[in-house]
Amino acid sequence: MADYLTDIVAYHRRRAALDDESFTSLLAGLDAIEPRPSLRSALLASAGLGVVAEFKRRSPSKGWFVEPETDVATRVSAYERAGAVAVSVLTDTPHFGGTLADLERAAQHVELPIVRKDFIVDARELLRARRAGASAVLLIAAALQPEEVASLAGVAHDVGLEVLLEIHELSELELAELAAADVVGVNQRDLTSFRVDTDRARRVLAALPPGAARLAESGVRGPDDLAGLVGFDGVLIGEACMRARDPYATVRALVERGASVHQDLRHHESV
Ligand SMILES: O=P(O)(O)OC[C@@H](O)[C@@H](O)c1c[nH]c2ccccc12
């Protein structure tokens, strides 16, 4: 049986093969579009463990988190008011129920840095991300050949996008250098099985490259799960933010705990 990641990436490769819009036409006028604020800077500047709150309508393993017609603007505005340092928007349609229009609408409603969360295998999607208002794009190490990581990251940087390189295994870390990644994300969810290991980020933390911002991803159910992520610059939280009846209160509680987690660490260092 094929795994989730293989199926999803195969879909995106087929789609790219059928895409007849040219790179050059998508590039036209792009440099006139104002760059968005930096994800890396927002993470590094955050007082504690910064919360990157995600807009994810559904997932392949868990189904819908919200009504399909849920408006992205209301929710990401609540994330912003609650003190999230950035917003992540899923734009994959068949598996996660998102669209690039969701990202565009989010970008019109918040000032925060925005990450385009998708399974990007084709450089034209980078140009579309930039046009829609993304600050950064996700590149998934496990979905790409090393030379694809290098070339996609190069194009992303050329058009003013930051690169969030997602790894799962330590063996993928050398790609962070190859991509000159601005942010390295450690996904605690294995994208082949969608199983979560909530200790994974903590275990690989010490090996992460010093230049990039460090983001722990997936599996955080609430504030109590943040203590183990001390040392990261930020944490990416999707399902818990999406299932929340009151996204403002939920994100606020996560933000407050995220800040205090680091105060604890500073306290330990000074004694
Ligand atoms: O809903 P969670 O467990 O809080 O996870 C959020 C985010 O990490 C997850 O959506 C994610 C991480 N990497 C991805 C790659 C593709 C799609 C989705 C993801």
From TrEMBL:
CDD domains referenced in this protein's UniProt entry, alphabetically: IGPS
GO molecular function per UniProt: indole-3-glycerol-phosphate synthase activity; phosphoribosylanthranilate isomerase activity
Enzyme class: lyase
Highest taxon of the lineage: Bacteria
Record PANTHER family: INDOLE-3-GLYCEROL-PHOSPHATE SYNTHASE, TRYPTOPHAN BIOSYNTHESIS PROTEIN
Keyword Amino-acid biosynthesis attributed: yes
EC number(s) reported in the record: 4.1.1.48
Catalysed reactions listed for this entry: 1-(2-carboxyphenylamino)-1-deoxy-D-ribulose 5-phosphate + H(+) = (1S,2R)-1-C-(indol-3-yl)glycerol 3-phosphate + CO2 + H2O
One Pfam assignment: IGPS
Descriptive protein name: indole-3-glycerol-phosphate synthase
Start and end residues of each Indole-3-glycerol phosphate synthase domain: 25-254
Source species of the chain: Acidimicrobium ferrooxidans (strain DSM 10331 / JCM 15462 / NBRC 103882 / ICP)
Keywords, alphabetical: Amino-acid biosynthesis, Aromatic amino acid biosynthesis, Decarboxylase, Lyase, Tryptophan biosynthesis
Single biological process term from Gene Ontology: L-tryptophan biosynthetic process
Residue intervals passing through the bilayer: none
PROSITE patterns registered for this protein in UniProt: IGPS
InterPro entries: Aldolase_TIM, Indole-3-glycerol_P_synth, Indole-3-glycerol_P_synth_dom, Indole-3-GlycerolPSynthase_CS, RibuloseP-bd_barrel
Positions in coiled-coil regions: none
Pathway: Amino-acid biosynthesis; L-tryptophan biosynthesis; L-tryptophan from chorismate: step 4/5
